[in-house]
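Please go through this protein, sequence plus structure tokens, and consider how the sequence yields the tokens. Keep your notes short.
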Amino acid sequence: MTNEHIYRVTARGRFKDLSEQAHAYLVRQQPDHDIFKSAYSAEGTFTYDEKIQFFNLRYEVRTSEGEGDAARIGENEATLFLRTLGYSSHKLKITVANVSAMWEEQA
């Protein structure tokens, strides 16, 4: 039996070459994607600033592997999400926090 670890993975990026249509859509939808409405979830949460420059994607990743695997999973999810919506970005910055380790320290 393996130990499952829970990771919070954040993919941060900057929008790149948005079409006028995509930019207008993001402006209209921005109140629903405010940073204060974000959470870590398996399906991910997409937030971005009012200037439509920077964004965050937040994922909860459960794996028996290490942080490197969680980072790869989060980056793949973020890349797929952006590609599906037709948004391009500059290189993503991925950060990982091992939530399981935090809980163990408090116990």
